[in-house]
Design brief:
alpha/beta, 9 helices, single chain, AB_hydrolase_1, 34% helix, Alpha/beta hydrolase, Sec-Metab_Biosynth_Hydrolase, hydrolase, six-stranded parallel β-sheet, hydrolase activity, 15% strand
């Protein structure tokens, strides 16, 4: 199976390096992506919006034969759901890593402090304690060294959908910084932030207790859960 790996904010394709070997060993082909504007710290970002990231990934789907699995971490979850809206008949499964689909019209995160046309990696004290579980000093230093500013409009653009068949794409949600029961409870309570997740017609929840960046804190465990999700289905 071809698996496209979409990173979250500030990260490029290399952020999946510790995850991909186990997936390849299981017989899959992996395609970790660097999204537009994340190629380097000097890359132009002013004219790049969320739709550009969605269409970039959709073009990678078009370049492959047969069904494709999408894996999206953090903000990459919104991107892969946008791709499921554009290519619902091509996506065998969407795997959301500590992420999920955004409700119609909502941005990924419009509260992060910007700097001009980009969002730099903010200080660690911006994040919650749950975000930073297992993020020791070495991991934080590595993250800081690899971090590339995010195009601001990727964080602030509202997402739009056109095809309800996206809701038929089977989904796996890997919950890290809070247990999956929190998400289930939010759906049951009708919380707006979980509305689009609640509309998915086939979804499973898997727990991987760690912080928000399991590709760094628990990469082998994350890889195993991705492989197991594919094996179950």
């Amino acid at each position: 199976m071809d698996i496209i790996l979409v990173p979250g904010f500030w990260l490029d394709a290399s952020s999946w390096d510790e995850v991909t070997p186990l997936i390849v060993e299981a017989g899959h082909r992996v395609h970790p992506l660097t999204l537009p504007g994340l190629e380097s710290r000097d890359a132009p970002r002013a004219d790049i919006g969320l739709r550009d990231h969605v269409e970039f990934v959709a073009a990678r789907v078009d370049a492959l034969d047969g069904d494709v699995v999408l894996v999206g971490h953090s903000g990459g979850g919104a991107v892969i759901h946008g791709v499921a809206d554009l290519r619902p008949d091509r996506i065998a499964r969407a795997i959301y890593v500590d992420s999920g689909p955004q409700p119609e019209g909502e941005p990924i995160n419009d509260e992060l402090p910007p700097d001009g046309d980009e969002i730099p990696l903010p200080p660690w004290d911006t994040f919650t304690e749950m975000d930073l579980v297992d993020m020791d000093e070495a991991i934080r230093a590595d993250f800081e060294a690899r971090a590339v500013p995010q195009p601001i409009r990727v964080g602030t653009d509202g997402i739009s959908y056109a095809d309800d068949r996206r809701l038929d794409v089977p989904a796996t949600i890997i919950c890290c910084e809070f247990p999956s029961q929190v998400l289930r409870d939010a759906i049951e309570a009708g919380d707006a932030w979980a509305a689009e997740v609640g509309r998915l017609r086939e979804v499973e929840y898997v727990d991987l207790p760690t912080g928000h960046w399991p590709q760094f804190t628990k990469p082998r465990e994350l890889a195993r859960l991705i492989v197991e999700a594919l094996e179950r289905h």
